[in-house]
Amino acid sequence: MTQSRLKRKELGAVGEAAAEQRLKEQGFRLLARNWRCRTGEIDIIAMDGEILVFVEVRTRSGRGAFGTPLESVNARKQRQIIETSQVYMHQQRQQVRQVRYDVLAVQTDPTGVVLHIEQIRNAF
């Protein structure tokens, strides 16, 4: 029996779960997942020691017909993440923290089996 392709939303959930697990293995302390406000959403918010890290997770399956996961975090998306992170920091009174923006690129096969995870620290 062959497994079916995952839908986009299911694939995203697989990627976020894999990214969350990778961050926990590295000793990150997770604060929030899929945090939303009027300006957008941040996939994962975590602490790496004393550094507040906002993580964008990009998941792709197959051969990359739409480019790599990292290429999909364009300038517009970066601005939206930064703006949303500022709302989070204001609401949580975290403005004085050192901040970092990471991208985790998760590559899967069409059925959602994770093949590779690449983490770019200080991605932007």
From TrEMBL:
Q: Name one GO molecular function term.
A: endonuclease activity
Supply the SUPFAM superfamilies for this chain: Restriction endonuclease-like
What InterPro entries does the entry give? Restrct_endonuc-II-like (IPR011335), tRNA_endonuc-like_dom_sf (IPR011856), UPF0102_YraN-like (IPR003509)
Q: What's in the keyword line of the UniProt record?
A: Endonuclease, Hydrolase, Nuclease
Name the family: Belongs to the UPF0102 family.
Name of the protein this chain belongs to:
UPF0102 protein IJ22_12410
